[in-house]
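Structure ticket #2291
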Amino acid sequence: MSSYHVHTSIDYRTVLSAHNTHLNNVHYTSTNDDSDDIELLQSAILKADPSVKLTVFTSSQEALVCISTDKVPPDVIFVDYNMPVFNGVECLQLFNALRMLNYTPYIASSTHMTPQLEQAFLNQGASYVFEKPTAVDGYDKVVEYVFTNIFGEVKSTSTVAN
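Resolution: structure written out below.
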């Protein structure tokens, strides 16, 4: 799995504390129309922390409407490049217009991540960009990276919480 790690100057832990009582009460959204990817991401998140809420949108247009009308922004937005209506880069550009998402980290993916696509995502504020994993445990590593580097918590997806 190719991955690109991007470090931002935003301390997301401070931002999350402002609208969550504690960091284990997080809400992720995923904009992805591939059912296999959705299932793998959901499984990895539940392994890392069963208390995380995941809302899945299979259309970028649906994601934009729902997120823009929600009173509390999601804590993390996963977005896939290959989406109907708006691609992932266009979706991030539209998310950026929503001031309520100024401190929401974007995690961007594509089946084939080129340097140009990576740069396009980064230019739109992606905090982490990765090529979709080909191995079953690939999403476990992505989610572990998000928990460790975005939230500052060490969560291993190799241990299922009881």
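Closing remark: Residues 1-23, 153-162 have pLDDT under 50 and may be disordered.
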